Amino acid sequence: MFNSPERVNMEKQAATQFPTLESVTRPTVETASAAHYLNRRPQTLRGWACHEDGPLRPVRINGRLAWPVADLRRLLGVA
Prior knowledge:
The chain is of the alpha+beta class.
C-alpha cells in the first residue's frame, strides 16, 4: 500500500546502474557496487567486514569500506 523505507531503498538500488565488473578500472569499489557484483545486500558485506569472516577483506579508506576489484574478479572468476 504505502512505500516502506526498505521498498524505497530497494527501488533506488534497482534504478542505480552499475558498470560491468570487466569494465571497472578503479582499484576498489564501494560497498553498494561490490554487493551488486556478488548478488548480496550491502549489509551482508558490512557484516563480513565487521566480523572478518567473509570471502573478501575490504580496505578501509578514511573510515569507509573499499572492496578490491582484483579480489572481486578472482572470487567471481572474471578475467
